[in-house]
Each structure stands twice: as structure tokens, then as C-alpha cells.
Amino acid sequence: MLPHQHRLTSKNDFDQVFSKGKNIRGKFFNVIILSNGSSKKSRFGVIVSNKVSKSAVVRNMIKRAIRSFVQDQIAGFERGLDVVVVAKNSASSQDKLALFEDLKSCFNLVSLV
To answer: Which UniProt keywords apply (predicted)?
Structure first.
């Protein structure tokens, strides 16, 4: 689990990232990134909607995979960014390795990892 200081928690934070952030599209994810204007730690949010899968088990598996990737790589991320990862429908049929590879390629596009 990500420490609280590394999590986006409020609706206002998510809305700000969606309205002003830069969108990177991968095969299984959209990653939206916005500088939060400080040198504090980067914060992350994860969205996996009912459109991805009707099964809560599958949605939670995808969320756990994303959070696991972020937690493993958090030391290498730039500071002062707000990042929202939105899962696409195609993510539900993939294994963890494929999800990790796509996340890594999305984050590499903006030099986060």
C-alpha cells in the first residue's frame, strides 16, 4: 500500500489533474501527469471503472498491480508531480507482466522512471 503522502485523495486533486494535466496513452492505461508546484513527494491516483470489468475482483487486481508497480518504482520518480493512472477496458484481460510493461513504457515517455 502506498503511504498516505504519496496518494491523491480529494476530488479536487483529481479534477485539477484531469483539467490541466498532460495525457499519455498506452495500450492498457492512460496516464495523466501534472506538476503540483512544489518539491514535495509525487502523489498517485488509480482509477479502474466498472467499464473495465463488472467484476470487483478483476478491478481490484488491476488496482493492486498498478499500486505495486508504483510502490516498487517510487524512489526513481520525479518529485512534485500528481499522477493519475486510468485503466482501459483491455487491461482486464492482461496478466501483471503485460500491465507492468505498459506502465513502464508510459512512464518512460515522460521520463518518470
So the answer is: Endonuclease, Hydrolase, Nuclease, RNA-binding, tRNA processing
